[in-house]
Amino acid sequence: MKRTLSALALAMGLAMAPMMSQATxxxxxxxxxLDNGMKIMVLEDASIPNANMYLFWKVGSRNEAPxxxxxxxxxxxxxxxxxxxYGPKMFDRTMEAAGGANNAYTTENLTVYTDxxxxxxxxxxxxxxxxxxADLDINADMVESERGVVTSERSxxxxxxNIRALMEELKGVAFRAHPYSWPVIGHESDxxxxxxxxxxxxxxxxxxxxxxxxxIAGDVKLAEVKSLANKYFAPIPAQAPPREVKTVEPLQxxxxxxxxxxxxxxxxxxxxxxxxxxxxHEDYYALELLAGILSAGNSSRLYQSMxxxxxxxxxxxxxxxxxxxxxFYLYAVGAPGVKADxxxxxxxxxxxxIAAEGVTEQELEKIKxxxxxxxxxxxETINGKANTLGTYELFFGSFDKLFNAPEAYNKVSTADIxxxxxxxxxxxxxxxxxxSAEEEMDK
Amino acid sequence: xxxxxxxxxxxxLALAGCAATQDVKRTQEPAAAAFQLPSYEKVTLDNGLTVxxxxxxxxxxxxxxxxxxxxxxxxxxxGISALTAEGLMLGSAGKSKRDIENQVDFLGASLSAEAxxxxxxxxxxxxxxxxxxxxxxFADVLLRPDFDATEFDKLKQREVGGLIQAKESPRAxxxxxxxxxxxxxxxYGNASGGNSESVAALTLPQIRAFYTGFYQPGNTSISVVGDxxxxxxxxxxxxxxxxxxxDAAPQQQSLKQGLPVxxxxxxxxxxxPDAMETTFLxxxxxxxxxxxxxxxxxxxxxxxxxxxxxxxxxxxxxxAGLTYGARSGFASYRDSGLxxxxxxxxxxxxxxxxxxxxxxxxxxxxxGIDQATLDSAKAYVKGQFPPKFETSxxxxxxxxxxxxxxxxxxxxxDFERKVDSLTLEETQRLINTYFPxxxxxxxxxxxxxxxxxxxxxxxxxxxxxxxxxxFGG
Lengths: 443, 473
Fold this sequence. Notes:
Largest sheet of chain B: 6 strands, mixed
Strand content of chain A: 15-25%
Oligomer: heterodimer
Low-confidence stretches of chain B: 1-32
Structural class of chain A: alpha+beta
Strand order of the largest sheet of chain A: 1-2-6-3-5-4
Number of strands of chain B: 14
């Protein structure tokens, strides 16, 4: 296979040269593991007088079962509702009084807590996090109030985003066995149904220090972080590892379809998804570059063939990182007067064309340059650094892979792109979801 | 898919004049630290063009921003400023739209143009090694647009489709309805994108005239932030932009004239028959960008509706479980501004949520602020400040705002001192002076069949259908 030295490699070479000495490198990341199994990574960066703490918990909708769908996300909310030392409301109040703010997100694979604070607030943040990890107090009244909040979150997402509505339906047909089948926010009836005991058990199982990776970046010192981690996190006992997710989605043997009738939709929206391997698979990088060739920038194939040609107002791809084999999504929002079928056929034509004819060297080099630019953009902020370091640690097994990513991308050839298109973006492996004001009619 | 905890209507509620910069002089005592704007150079070229240069070397990237004093407030036809800005990207100096896009994408760079309420923005971000390609391209787009007729027609069609589609998301358009309700025919009521009928009717000669009238060096600043040598960059900017010539001075009307006086409470009820929830804004007039009390108001608003533990979020979300998020904020313009409370709730709790929002808002006057809450808000505002100005793009945006709104370094460098000096007594003066207490204006987007009987409680009701043309769509 031909390997070319692309602009990407040249630029990364420059990144190692003295003139770029301020850029973060792998050697700047320090890590240690507490006796209870919690791994902590530290990046000293004094560019602003702030720091952050990102806690990655290995639990998401993937760890749920029917009847308990959405519990990971619901639990994310409950982590803010009171513990032994800091009672109800006191987590946020204490953090904000120390100049800090926080948020959290739940995905199919992970629940991630983000704390952003002036560097002076570091010990307060450790104290707050340790309290809710070790001694969360799950209160019945709080659970009831929070059900209302999550129900509102679910409905406001569907009210304001056709894409969200499409994805929920599409996952439901693309998976029939694996937990990726249901939306991260869960089914409405499940949100209404879980019990206090479900939540207590969930906390004990998944919020054990051995199930977490913590990243701290900013104006901190490694010694200070180590000392605080030993004081606050080390005393929290490890637990037995959670049950493994063993379900393997059966091979899809033919195209699957679903339809959403939405009378107020101004034009049809189409989303399709193909089963692809987990992020740890060797084809990840080729698929990621393929997604970029299809949709990154106005010179991309989908923009040119759909938006520039006035078929769609938007056309994009979505390829999430994932522990288990998951989906590669394409979607388009129709231009006025365009039928759903025309959108669908063009999305299919574009993927088939790459499978049949491949991509050009120029396109491949372009997308590698875009990836390098993405890397630098991520490295511009302490939050970008923390989030990305943790993400690589979990999905690739080591944060080192972040710094090896340019090399991994550089190894991908045009033949690799064509091969993954042929292997995965084929009809039998496809599920299609259409949202439209016009009902699909019997033929 | 992310499921954020407090996902709020942020876009509609940009806080007034919040700005800070990277602290390069942090001492051992955080309390004594003050955020200072990183050093930069400001140069005015002979042709009147204002240039800002700020070096930032953390990553090998450069951001170049231009801001032209021309926005929706200058619209002679609704949407013309937006279409002119976007029209810059349709080809320039003989290079087609596709040529430009291919070149930009190949370098992994970005280049875009858009217009807001009072400014038109052209922005590029690229690797430092590509400066000699990207800077001339940026100049071509800004100075020598071709406004190709075929591409212009295509852009118009896409814009019209986008404006119609935006109305499928109440959150995307509620701010436009509110601006129009408060400002009426005053230029501050103009939605930045125009509406589907006005945009469809725009012509190339109109766009060219708008461009000629406003895109002039004396009406523009260029900010360059990132990894470059300042002396070299200055010379290059002079070579690239020094020959740009001004025609007649742009016609900038005073926007202080004809501002509305809100004489009664009014409700704009926007019917979306298949809505599951009601999305609403409540508010009135706010403050202009140059208001000396803006920093103090940011602190007071933090307590009312600017953070997770704010009164509004605490009551509506945490205590009542009525919504996923509730907040408030000031949106400031050069000569005026808005204040808004925003939230959403399922259709059958609309009345409960509005009443609770109003009751919570009234605490500003009935109860006031206590010292512990004020101290917490001050710490919060200061602590969340530096990350707003961490990237070259954020810093270039700040420099553009300094030009557009006419503030200087003291606006940034005095921020922390102003926060620290705010007293309880002063908060009461700010509340009584600036927060609209009565004659409130309401926009409710939801199922009118169910919400109309409630709407009359709050003021004189006007009802429109969300699909009706206008109000930013």
